[in-house]
Design brief:
Layout (H helix, E strand, L loop, with lengths): L1 H20 L3 E6 L3 E5 L36
Antiparallel strand pairs: 1-2
Length: 74
């Protein structure tokens, strides 16, 4: 179990390093599978479910409210 978890951490930190080297801003790396970046990550990573790919979990645009109603009010 420890070897698998260690490999998962290494995979995440290698993705963070790759993102940084490609000019993305790394905001947070959490657990073994969560990487938050600012910038166009699709030019750096392929989207998918493989170990070398990235799966979108949530998207947040800076400067917008999380829960805008139909009239623009929260």
């Amino acid at each position: 179990m420890h070897l698998i978890r260690s490999q998962a951490f290494a995979n995440l930190w290698m993705k963070a390093l790759k993102a940084h080297e490609e000019g993305l801003v790394v905001v947070r790396a959490m657990g073994t599978d969560e990487l938050h970046v600012v910038g166009d990550w699709r030019r750096v990573f392929a989207e998918g479910r493989a170990v070398t790919e990235v799966k979108v979990k949530d998207v947040c645009l800076a400067g917008t409210a999380v829960d805008d109603g139909p009239d623009g009010q929260e």
